[in-house]
TrEMBL record:
Domain 4Fe-4S ferredoxin-type: 176-205, 211-240
Entry-linked InterPro entries: 4Fe4S_Fe-S-bd, DmrX, Flavin_trans-like, Flavoprotein, PSI_iron-sulfur_center
Protein name: Archaeoflavoprotein, MJ0208 family
GO terms, molecular function: 4 iron, 4 sulfur cluster binding; metal ion binding; oxidoreductase activity, acting on the CH-NH group of donors
Domain of life of the source: Archaea
Species per Swiss-Prot/TrEMBL record: Methanotorris igneus (strain DSM 5666 / JCM 11834 / Kol 5)
Amino acid sequence: MFIYVEKILPKNIYILVGVGHLFIFISKYQTHFGGVMKVVWCITGAGHLLRESFEVMKKLKKHGIKITTLVSRAGEEVVKMYGLMEDLYKISNNNYYEELIFEREHPYSAPITGRLSLGKYDYLISTPTTGNTVAKVVNGIADTLVTNAIAQAGKGFVKCIIVPVDYEEGIVTTRLPFSIDREKCTLCKACVEVCKNNAIVVNFDETSSKSFMEIILSKCVGCGKCKEICQYDAVIAGKEIKMRVRKIDAENTRKLKDLEDTIVLKHPYEIIDILLKKP
């Protein structure tokens, strides 16, 4: 009969003690023998693949994985625009190893990343990851919360999984947050009255000499009340647009693959296969 001893050696090394015997068990997963997998999840300022990333976070949390979330300044704005802030607070509810860290509240030294340099997490996951963040990472720049975390993960032998929004050259389809169709809008201003954040304003186009409604995305929290009240179906949620991935951004993504202990994925759904695969 063996007795499991809590992990006291370096990352992912456990001890099994039997009568007159000492066994060291090296595990690929902390979920063995009642342990809990812990990950750091980084969110940067991209709307592309954001909802899909949240779907994965929710699924991992349901499987008992603890998620500490780091959110860049731009990432916080985008999460609000897409109406995902409430979900974020549920995923990382500020319990131990489930903290929610916003860059705007954090000092530049980012003490929370010290856990990464000490190897306290199983994975660092960054998705969605902007081209700006990728460019900094591949050039060794660590001057933000997220880039510092990635750098410290590398130093602490923590595996990194990065999903860049600019994975390869070509055209990608992405979805926008809320917007207003000017052709359908009648300027009734019902949406203005219902918006508690004053995110909808009336502007004037001098070229056409016409007024139009506009959503100020920096103020929008994605609540959807404007869409609910609009009788003319003029408020659009998730409009699809085409975007080009630049050559330079795709080249930087390829450079990511040369970093130590770094896995580069095309889509966040692929994370599930890695973290939830059976040992």
